[in-house]
Amino acid sequence: MTEDPPKRRTLSLKPGVQVTRPLGPQPLTPLRADKPGRPPRAPRPESPPKTVERPTHGWKCKPCGAFFDPPAEGPDDEVVRCPDCNARIGVAGDFRQTPPPARLRARPMRH
Ligand SMILES: [Zn+2]
């Protein structure tokens, strides 16, 4: 066995190139270095958009929190349902009582 291992040419740096820093793992940079003071999450995603500006929405549905208006006219025993979740809020007459009865599943928003 007289096989000589093939000689490999030694890689050499090009003349004039200086190694200024050793190659290796880069130091870890903190992930939050882009913007300090940035909140981790949205502050309140459940805040309703300010699209309803009409002052006629004087009641708020207790089950779902939607704003609505009871019928201004009609019989007192007319069933009022939430336009959003369709929950039975009460009857029209309940909205005309002051204060509203406890069975009414809505809150007056006017003060
Ligand atoms: Zn509702």
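^ zinc ion complex. The mean pLDDT is 80. The first helix runs from residue 92 to 95.
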